[in-house]
Structure formats: C-alpha cells, structure tokens
Design a protein that fits this description.
With about 90 residues, the protein is mainly beta. Helices cover about 10% and strands about 40% of the residues. It is built from one helix and seven strands. It has one helix at about 65-75, and strands at about 5-10, 15-20, 30-35, 40, 50-55, 60-65, 80. It starts with a strand and ends in a 5-residue tail after the last strand.
Length: about 90
Amino acid sequence: MSEGTHTVTPGGNPASVIFKAACPDCRGRFELAAGALRLAIGASHRTTFYSFTCPDCGSAVRKPAGERIVELLTGGGVRTLRLHSTV
C-alpha cells in the first residue's frame, strides 16, 4: 500500500481517494478507490489489517496494517471495523 492520491473539492474535502495496491497472488499492481478497501483494527498489530479483492484475478487479499497505513486508510475514507476481544 502506498500513499493515496487525493482529489480535493473546493470545500477542502476529499472527493475521491485512490490507493495503490498489489496482489501477492497474481502480482498485479493497480489503483483502488477507498470503497474497495476494508480496514479492521484489532487489539494488536496481529489483528489489524486491511483487505480487498484483486480486480485482476479475484483473489481475496488481506495485509497487515501498521499505524501509518491505518492513518492513510482512515483519512481516505476507508470503511473501518473495530474488533473487540472477548475476554
């Protein structure tokens, strides 16, 4: 995942954010809109990840998300799910 490309409206809000991504299965490289990504934030780095479906091969892709990726994705409007631990 690399930094998103932002299109900003006159009011200063991002109109659309595009993220560069790659598929580990087919090695395709492509751009995805924020709506094509999902972010899950868990209690640890092991349970924090983002996911998407590869537009080239259709594989479900899941990758770890560190703090910087979480910042980029949430700032870009990616839908976020907060995971709660059951203790």
